[in-house]
């Protein structure tokens, strides 16, 4: 009887120990699973933070580029147009505007303008100097050498020079002086009238149409 009790107690003890071992293993397994779940959550959190940071950086770069582009477009430039436009002069425009915009600001082409002597689609740069040639200039270039090119810097002979104090506006225009269209011819005539009916010197010409063109025109005119 005692032997049976001892065996029974031994079995119970062994089962208790086995239960403890199984319980311990189950508890460790749960802890490992919880630890792994936490690691996955943290990893996902870090990855999300990295993605958010990349998105923020991209948005910042995009915003900076947009601000830079807006600043460039708001930048003001100055360009000059002369020749066959209604109001020759220097005009302020926004950066990125084109020759057509400059011509429009100058009142558009005159009736005698060769509209294709300039590329209206070309973008302007600060300090550009645009000449709109006349139809007469175009025809003269073709008649001179058939190639459409002429040396605008060559001086006229004395027989070809025009008396600037007796010439009318139309006569000045028809003379096809490089850079002198209807608008500048009108300025010359009006200055002459306001100056006692006479242009007396190169300085008077510079006052009438500006220093640069005033000097250039002297090769094509006579002052009598």
Automatic annotation (TrEMBL):
Keywords: Membrane, Transmembrane, Transmembrane helix
Residue ranges annotated for the Soluble ligand binding domain, each copy included: 80-132
Top-level division of the source organism's lineage: Bacteria
Biased composition (Low complexity): 142-157
Extent of Basic and acidic residues compositional bias: 45-60
Region annotation (Disordered) ranges: 44-77, 136-165
Listed InterPro entries: Endo/Exo/Phosphatase_dom_1 (IPR051675), RuvA_2-like (IPR010994), Soluble_ligand-bd (IPR019554)
SUPFAM superfamilies cross-referenced by the UniProt entry: Nqo1 middle domain-like (SSF142984), RuvA domain 2-like (SSF47781)
Keyword check for Isomerase: no
Gene Ontology cellular-component annotations: type II protein secretion system complex
GO process terms (BP): protein secretion by the type II secretion system
Keyword Transmembrane helix belongs to the record: yes
Residue ranges of the TM segments: 6-26
Name used for this protein in its record: Competence protein ComEA
Organism in which the protein naturally occurs: Clostridium acidisoli DSM 12555
């Amino acid at each position: 009887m005692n032997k049976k009790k001892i065996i029974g107690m031994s079995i119970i003890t062994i089962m208790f120990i086995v239960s403890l071992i199984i319980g311990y293993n189950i508890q460790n397994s749960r802890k490992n699973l919880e630890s792994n779940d936490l690691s996955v959550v943290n990893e996902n959190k870090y990855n999300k933070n990295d993605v958010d940071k990349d998105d923020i950086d991209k948005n910042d770069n995009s915003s900076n580029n947009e601000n830079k582009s807006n600043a460039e477009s708001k930048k003001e430039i100055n360009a000059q147009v002369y020749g066959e436009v209604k109001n020759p002069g220097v005009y302020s425009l926004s950066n990125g505007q084109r020759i057509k915009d400059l011509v429009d600001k100058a009142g558009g082409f005159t009736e005698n303008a060769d509209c294709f002597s300039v590329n209206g689609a070309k973008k302007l740069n600060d300090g550009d100097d645009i000449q709109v040639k006349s139809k007469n200039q175009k025809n003269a270039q073709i008649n001179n050498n058939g190639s459409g090119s002429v040396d605008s810097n060559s001086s006229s002979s004395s027989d070809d020079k025009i008396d600037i104090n007796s010439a009318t506006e139309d006569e000045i225009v028809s003379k096809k002086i490089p850079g002198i269209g209807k608008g500048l011819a009108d300025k010359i005539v009006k200055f002459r009238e306001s100056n006692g009916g006479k242009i007396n010197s190169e300085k008077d010409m510079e006052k009438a149409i500006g220093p640069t063109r005033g000097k250039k025109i002297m090769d094509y005119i006579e002052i009598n």
